[in-house]
Amino acid sequence: MKVGNFPEFVWIWNQRLGLGTPHHQLRMARWLAARWHGRERELLLMAFRSSGKSTIVGLFCAWVLAVNPDLRIMVLAADMALAKKMVRNVKRIVERHPLTQGLKPGRRDQWAADQFTVNRPGELRDPSMVAKGIGANITGSRAEIIICDDVEVPNTCDTAPKRADLRERLAEIEYVMVPGGTQLYVGTPHSFYTVYADKARLEAGESRPFLDGFTRLELPLIDAKGRSAWPERFPMERIGALRKRSGPNKFDSQMMLRPVNIAEGRLDPDRLRLYEADLVYAEGNGVPLLSIGGRRMVSASCWWDPAYGAPGKGDASVVACVFTDQDGLYWLHRIGYLEFDPARTDTDEATQLCRQVARFAADLHLPAVQLETNGLGRFLPGLLRRELAVAGIACAVLEVASRRAKDQRIVDAFDAVLAAGALHAHRSVWDTPFVAEMREWQPGGKGHDDGLDAVSGCLLSQPVRLSRPAGATRAGDWRPGGAPVVARSDFEF
Fold it and tell me: Average pLDDT for residues 240-263, to the nearest whole number?
């Protein structure tokens, strides 16, 4: 029996069910058919929720089996129940579609809920189609087509460790797929750090997108001209009600396919003004100058929020530095997540951390470090002063006790400067967890906020203008008014 082209296959099925074929579903079918005939084998299909994309992909699986019954298809989903749903859908199509008659096997053991094998000429160990949850062991399986259907859901991407585990498991696909096989991802983004992103997330350590090189089809609910992609089911008034009911973040993520956090975050790192200029120290006419990108810095704030900083455990020990220029703009030039080395038995943990802070202060020509003395911090000021003195670094240590709730400090520090576009951040900041903390932070949440706390301390503190401690040496004090003044004394009263 002649199977025909895939869009025809879809139209016949919908006619049998008494349904029409919406334009966006026909567009998906044509796209899949063109990619298949063009031998493009790395594909990403993103379409708004309830668009019928899984139905179209199920029909595609039935169609390719009708074209070549020897093909093997694996469906990976966030959990086994979701993967089985796709397999059941394809079984139903194979049983009822006029162009797949003769594919259903006679033996019931080849027609199970989670896998099936169609009548095929080849003798192959793997079934025609099998369902697997993303956490299942797929070692030893082989397939010509792997469908990743909604592998990214909140349960697999709402924390950084879960996102890393998801990527690790998806990397196993390369060992299952036969050479020249097809990968088809189907879903919607559930996180800013989605596997479907078209740009690398620098702060997450990516140098390229996870699905770099994949051919993409994106079908948001509202097109570039402001029209509904499915006006019969989603007229504009219903879209407005849906946006209001679900909230802007969830609507943007699930219906407009924009990678944002579904949870309503408070801080927007996209408002940071990224720069790559280095900190430059120079002297002109005997006057020290500190500048970034040609702009003179007039003050600095450095805040250390200490913790034990054990590798991969507990709170992070974070030190941050923010400069202020002559126009009152803020420059977050460096942030350090400190860790001690437990293998070093010659130096205790606190001393290791203090030495790192001392190097941080020296590298950035800082006049003072503000040390939060709540908890662990009350034991550190004397030790930090000792390490600064030993290294000959002219930097004061200011002890500060935080009395306001951390969430309120963070809101007070960031809201105004982000809204005004007054906070610049050096490129190196994106190599730390700080930007991810911003994007995922919510008041009262349980996520990491140690970097936010340190930077908020810098933003809320007054610029430090201290005289040089006795006995310390410095190349020059770059702050206006910080250089020594020489007065004439060769006169008589």
Answer: 84
Q: What percentage of residues in the chain have a pLDDT greater than 70?
A: 90
* Whole-number Cα distances in Å, 176 to 69, 75, 83: 19, 12, 17
Q: Residue ranges per domain, the chain?
A: 6-254, 269-460
E strand or H helix that includes residue 458 = helix 450-460
CB 47 within 8 A of CB 149: no
Parallel/antiparallel/unpaired status of strands 215-219 and 42-47: parallel
Asked if domains 6-254 and 269-460 share a fold, the reply is: no
The mean pLDDT value for 269-285 works out to 90
Q: Which of 28, 54, 25 is nearest to 233 (CA)?
A: 25
Strand-strand pairing, 287-292 and 279-284: antiparallel
CATH fold for the domain made of 6-254? Rossmann fold (3.40.50)
Residues sharing a CB contact under 8 Å with residue 425, sequence separation 6 or more, in sequence order: 272, 273, 274, 275, 332
d(CA 332, CA 327): 15
Look at the alpha carbons of 467, 365, 369, 393 in this order and tell me if their dihedral is positive or negative. negative
| pLDDT tier for residue 404 given thresholds of 50, 70 and 90 | confident
Helix (H, G, I), strand (E, B) or coil at 272: coil
Residue 206 structure tokens: 């990516």
427-431 own/partner pairs: CB under 8 Å, 24+ apart: 427/274, 427/275, 427/276, 428/334, 428/335, 429/203, 429/272, 429/332, 429/334, 429/335, 430/202, 430/203, 430/274, 431/202, 431/203, 431/205
CA–chain centroid gap for 435, Å, is: 9
- C-alpha to C-alpha distance for 188 and 259, rounded to whole angstroms: 9
Indicate if the pLDDT at residue 260 is higher than 70.
yes
For residue 393, what is the DSSP state?
Answer: B
Instruction: Round to whole Å and give the CA distance between 391 and 94.
Output: 76
What is the DSSP secondary structure assignment for residue 140, as one 8-state letter? T
Q: Which of 94-103, 343-352, 474-483 has the lowest mean pLDDT?
A: 474-483
Q: CA–CA separation, 355 vs 339, rounded Å?
A: 11
Measured in residues, the chain has a length of 493
Range from 237-241, 320-324, 401-405 carrying the lowest mean pLDDT: 401-405
CATH architecture for residues 269-460: 2-Layer Sandwich (3.30)
Given phi > 0 = left and psi -120 to 50 = alpha, else beta, which region is 2?
beta
pLDDT in tens, 303-357: 998 987 566 666 789 999 999 998 889 999 999 999 888 888 888 888 999 999 9
